[in-house]
Amino acid sequence: MNEPVLARLQQLMNLREEVETLGSARPWTPAADWIDGDSHLILLLDVPGVNLDTLALSEEDDTVTVQGERPALDETLGRVLSAERSSGKFTRTLVFPEAVLPQSGEARLSAGVLTIQFEKRHPTIDATAQELGEETES
Amino acid sequence: MNEPVLARLQQLMNLREEVETLGSARPWTPAADWIDGDSHLILLLDVPGVNLDTLALSEEDDTVTVQGERPALDETLGRVLSAERSSGKFTRTLVFPEAVLPQSGEARLSAGVLTIQFEKRHPTIDATAQELGEETES
């Protein structure tokens, strides 16, 4: 299966989890992207309205867990008429798509998007650049 | 039905829309909350990673439409391994839960959350405060 289909399946799995928890507290599963940047892996997570000081990152073997919390709707603003936006704590555990150096994660939060960059244990060598280099030598 | 159940049903309707569009471009429907603040209505929308200059607000009769766009993943960052986060344009049309004054919407964007405040046509009178006032007068 190609990547878009896999991503869709992951979405459906998340949807199923959400439907199964319909009777309990509203589920809160931030969407995530993984990017391979040759020397590093980049994890992007949508966490709108989450304060930086609630965010925590932990690594164990081949997984990374991101935890955080979005405050509940401020009741001083008024009476809630309808609420689709999730609030409260979230925990998301993801498997690293490639081995990374332990504790190499560097996080930043901007416009509600959390970006975490990890150093890859085995950086991808840019074959094109190497070939060009060999050509120059000969 | 109480409000949490209604919110759940709205979620399920959104999920159904998402499942139905599984073959096409990834759906992108920002979650929304409505709050009644006595003299105004507040609309909150989760739009992480959306730039302010792509956002547009339009009102027609009893509905408000919010449009915006999130840029696709920056390919200069690297190769996309998996992508759950939606990108591209979104359009969300919502019915005002109460009549508002035309063109009274004031928007601000913070931490990926868009907050739009509208002036209510018929502000809610705070009965408690009035009663207290009458007591003081007597």
UniProtKB/TrEMBL annotation, chains A, B:
Belongs to the small heat shock protein (HSP20) family. InterPro entries: A-crystallin/Hsp20_dom, HSP20-like_chaperone, Small_HSP. It holds the Pfam family HSP20. Keywords: Stress response. SUPFAM superfamilies: HSP20-like chaperones (SSF49764). This is Heat shock protein. PROSITE patterns: SHSP. It comes from the Bacteria. Residues 23-135 form the SHSP domain. The keyword Membrane does not apply.
